[in-house]
Amino acid sequence: MKLSCENQRITVVELYKSRMKPTDIVRMTGYKKKTVYDAVKRYKESSGTADRSRSGCPTTAATPENIQKVFCRIQRNCEQSIREMAKKLGITQRSVRNIVTKKLRLRSCKINRVCFLNEEKSRRMLRLLASARMSKVLFADE
Known about the structure:
Blueprint: H1 5-17, H2 22-29, H3 33-46, H4 64-76, H5 82-89, H6 93-103, H7 119-130
Helix pairs in contact: 1-3, 2-3, 4-6, 5-6
């Protein structure tokens, strides 16, 4: 059973308070040495086990409401670009891309246009084949 970071810190601090050495805590609990020493250091600095405040600006665009909107739009039309989606939702492209990749765990891709062979391209390809600069060619009629 894997404990959360907060539970690990609480365990380490309680053992440390009971006058146990960090090396003994590592041996007894099986936690990583860095985990134990970091928890003890944090306890000495702040006299607690709570997470420190995070640096940077909190996310405002990746709200559950916006995540649901992006998900519904993708389900409705999976060929819509992230740029179009961002414009229609009124949030930045970077935020929409983060929602798609990190929150929804989807991968965006670009739709490529198919290029058909014309007479000039086919002659150029035959010359490349004849000069052995192109070794493998796959033709498909689909």
